[in-house]
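TICKET: design request
STATUS: open
ATTACHED STRUCTURE:
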């Protein structure tokens, strides 16, 4: 175990502030610390799950986020600003520049997981993304389907994210969720893109094409979406990690207590990375980039 990972994707809230939820309660910083000690993580980036109404599971205020970070600085190293493209005026004229400047002054390191269920190249998104690029704030995207659940909307093979990256140079976007990770293989279809595809990978998919074309595009290894996709072919997964080692960040997507025991992908991904580098299937350089260095390049030192 290497004990040097940075978690670029997790959710927690304090024991004093626990919104009701079907699974009981969210992970506290203490729960998170126990999980981190078990899988070799130093600190993480907290995403407040409440920026968009479609995913208002844990609507933490900025004050609550800052208080939790100050009281648990050994576990929570960074925080993400809760922003939605419909904020302020619900038009492309919204003054995101001023809003993001304020968040940056407060210490925000990136934008919270984007879950607004509208097209990714909607003019309101473009306005927000231009401000994100100006303030050098990366954005993690959870991809969904229109009119059902949460997540930004893109079609099969992700044409909208390509248009966004063309229109907003310098914007750092980080892909996440099954709809994103299923594009690692050519067998993704309209019928299976929302779930966890099984069986061997069927050739290089859209993700690889986009990563090669756009150096400012990233993907995160959090949740079962990444783990299930890569475990379809662990040998190729090592090749993927090696080739794109500068564009992949480690993450867990921990949201609930006892994640190490109840969410097999949390320990599974950490173990896979540790075992791959120990066995020489990925290089030390690739391991360090994926597990730590890429995150620090985006987030800066913990404050």
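STATUS: resolved
RESOLUTION: sequence designed for all positions
ATTACHED SEQUENCE:
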């Amino acid at each position: 175990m290497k004990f040097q990972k940075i978690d670029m994707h997790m959710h927690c809230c304090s024991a004093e502030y626990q919104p009701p939820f079907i699974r009981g309660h969210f992970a506290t910083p203490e729960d998170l610390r126990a999980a981190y000690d078990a899988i070799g993580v130093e600190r993480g980036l907290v995403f407040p799950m409440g920026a968009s109404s479609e995913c208002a599971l844990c609507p933490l205020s900025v004050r609550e986020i800052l208080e939790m970070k100050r009281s648990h600085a050994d576990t929570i190293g960074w925080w993400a600003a809760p922003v939605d493209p419909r904020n302020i005026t619900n038009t492309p004229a919204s003054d995101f520049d001023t809003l993001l400047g304020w968040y940056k002054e407060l210490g925000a390191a990136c934008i919270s997981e984007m879950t607004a269920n509208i097209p990714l190249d909607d003019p309101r998104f473009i306005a927000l993304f231009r401000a994100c690029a100006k303030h050098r704030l990366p954005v993690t995207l959870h991809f969904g389907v229109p009119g059902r659940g949460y997540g930004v909307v893109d079609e099969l093979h992700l044409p909208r994210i390509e248009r966004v990256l063309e229109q907003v140079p310098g914007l750092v976007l980080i892909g996440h969720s099954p709809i994103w990770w299923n594009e690692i293989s050519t067998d993704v279809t309209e019928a299976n893109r929302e779930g966890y595809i099984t069986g061997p990978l069927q050739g290089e998919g859209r993700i690889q094409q986009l990563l090669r074309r756009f150096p400012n595009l990233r993907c995160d290894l959090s949740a079962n979406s990444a783990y299930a996709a890569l475990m379809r072919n662990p040998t190729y997964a090592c090749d993927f990690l090696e080739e794109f080692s500068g564009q992949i960040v480690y993450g867990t997507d921990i949201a609930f207590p006892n994640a190490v025991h109840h969410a097999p992908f949390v320990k599974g991904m950490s173990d896979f990375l540790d075992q791959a580098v120990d066995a020489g299937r990925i290089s030390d350089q690739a391991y360090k980039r994926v597990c730590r260095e890429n995150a620090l390049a985006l987030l800066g030192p913990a404050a």
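CLOSING REMARK: Residues 5-299 form a domain with the TIM Barrel fold (CATH 3.20.20.140). The beta strands are 5-10, 41-46, 76-81, 110-114, 139-144, 152-153, 173-176, 217-220, 248-249.
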